[in-house]
Design goal:
alpha+beta, five-stranded antiparallel beta sheet, 204 residues, two-stranded antiparallel sheet
């Protein structure tokens, strides 16, 4: 399990920003000594401590492209800066299965977006970076005229919305917590940890 602890200033205690389960057999490179500290890597919108120059891909660019390639219907990313991983593969297969299951009743789409200010990257001792980020996934159902979708089997959706049947539209929002290792000069980033959590739903 990887834990990201953050603090806005020296006077504020650290708090856990996210906890993410590692994907076997992933490993994490050693960091600098605690006495010297490990520098943050700058994001275009986040705190700037050291520049992302020298990394194979900038942290925010990595997360944006990763989010884009997970959309459904699928959108190919030209020369992705990340290697294929089982987490995104399972999500894409799941989206295709849902779309097929409701094809007669509704049109299903899935969009992933990087949450603002959620990307943090820390340099490892060897110059690589460990990149944390949060994506918001929205699963949307546009119900076709004269049709309805039975949602009773989706316990999370029923708990959040109180609805077991939708006649017009529905959506589920899920947060996806991901962690990548990014090489310092060349090569592809690799997903080493991932977790998801449903946080909202709506239906009518």
């Amino acid at each position: 399990m990887l834990h990201l602890l953050v603090s806005p200033d020296a006077a504020t205690p650290y708090r856990i920003s996210m906890s993410v389960e590692m994907v076997p057999p992933a490993t994490v490179q050693p960091f600098d000594r605690l006495t010297s500290g490990s520098p943050l890597v700058a994001n275009s919108t986040g705190p700037q401590v050291t520049r992302s120059a020298g990394l194979a891909v900038a942290p925010d660019t990595l997360l944006k492209q990763y989010a884009a390639q997970m959309a459904f219907p699928a959108k190919a990313v030209s020369k992705p800066p990340f290697a294929a991983d089982p987490f995104s593969g399972q999500l894409q297969a799941g989206a295709a299965a849902v779309a097929a299951a409701v094809a007669t009743q509704a049109t299903f789409t899935q969009v992933h977006k990087v949450l603002p200010d959620s990307v943090y990257a820390v340099r490892a001792a060897n110059g690589d970076a460990l990149v944390f980020g949060v994506l918001a996934r929205t699963d949307s159902f546009a119900v076709k005229t004269g049709q309805n979708v039975d949602t009773a089997a989706n316990k999370a959706f029923v708990l959040l919305t109180g609805k077991k049947l939708i006649n017009t539209s529905g959506s589920i929002t899920t947060l996806e917590f991901v962690v990548f290792t990014v090489p310092q000069s060349s090569g592809q980033a690799r997903l080493i940890a991932a977790r998801e959590q449903i946080v909202a739903g709506s239906g009518s």
